[in-house]
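Researcher: Re-running this chain for the archive, since the previous output was lost when a drive failed. Same request as before.
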Amino acid sequence: MMMGLTLFLREAITHPCHVGALCPSSKRLASDLAEQIPPDNPGRIIELGAGTGAITAALLQQKSPQHELIAIERSAKLAKHLTQRFPDLTVIQGDACQLQELLNGYTSTPIHAIVSSLPLRSLPPYIVQTIGQEINHVLKKGGLFVQCTYNLWGKTLAPAQQLKLIHRQWVWKNLPPARIDVFCRA
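Model: Regenerated structure tokens:
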């Protein structure tokens, strides 16, 4: 665990705009994010910005047998760490701006949920728009997009117009406190 924290801090200092957090997600935040995924809806779950795997661990613990989890991480160092920490997990090292391309070999099973801890508010608008377009292409209609943000009271940021907010939840037991926004793809 300490190695993961050290790696996280190193990446946060080296690439602050890409990491977008002061600390890894707490177990409470990770658990609350994972609980947003209905266990009775089979399909693929994609995690964007898997980092050191705090949310990944909760998603793996929560998922039902008919779910398959794929973690996507931009940082090569963090992707390597995830592969070592979760040897049976599919980890793809790449940028969410190329989501369709990254998932090209995994399109036979529908993607029914995307869980994101990407720092959308600190990214340039054109990148957020590109990520939103990619999400629209891969997420099935009626699928969920679950986003974690540290902007507790600000306007909800949907990366695409087809994503409609259906639920909000605040998580106080995290550093810093966070908000979970759940969207459904129309």
